[in-house]
Amino acid sequence: xxxxxxxxxxxxxxxxxxxxxxxxxxxxxxxxxxxxxxxxxxxxxxxxxxxxxxxxxxxxxxxxxxxxxxxxxxxxxxxxxxxxxxxxxxxxxxxxxxxxxxxxxxxxxxxxxxxxxxxxxxxxxxxxxxxxxxxxxxxxxxxxxxxxxxxxxxxxxxxxxxxxxxxxxxxxxxxxxxxxxxxxxxxxxxxxxxxxxxxxxxxxxxxxxxxxxxxxxxxxxxxxxxxxxxxxxxxxxxxxxxxxxxxxxxxxxxxxxxxxxx
Length: 262
Known about the structure:
Low-confidence stretches: none
Structural class: mainly alpha
Strand order of the largest sheet: 1-2
Number of strands: 4
Distance between the termini: 109 Å
């Protein structure tokens, strides 16, 4: 077996080895210099990342697939400080206006940001950096929502507000009571439907302290129930059951408000 005209490798065709023969077929010259493959960069201006698909890097290609535009959203350069990254996503408007979050949001419409915490809530990070660290048990109330007439819920735009002037650190109960939910509206009521003032002395706490009941109305309802004929007949039946069970008349009168256990 003879060797290639230009190297020591065995002849493949026309006196050339397979490498030189391929160059001969492709360029017409078996001694054409090797052409190293050069990686193309992203076609988006200012992005030097390697191209992955359609002339775009991975990040811009994903934006093209998702939004139809590789320049959709905002791209923050890597290596920027976390606080600077945070402020780059805030649309700072007038001092009294809401400052919308232009980055991603979670299912409850709160701004999402890589804060280094499990929650990743943008306004909590902003409060801790621009106002003060939050104490245990505290949460951030968006005061721009209070009294605005917004019905709240997962479509509320006030949840994404990043204006420090619209923030207040409160406990969870205060934050919930300032909203427009059914429970929050009831929590702000000072009188019951009958007009009795819901003072501490005139209030029963029920459902683990989550609900209030007027003592006057509760007692009036119990009195009306005790005066009804059906309630009296029910007590008489219980009284007879206790007497048949061997209880004395006085004991039966005391216990007839509840049925005899079988």
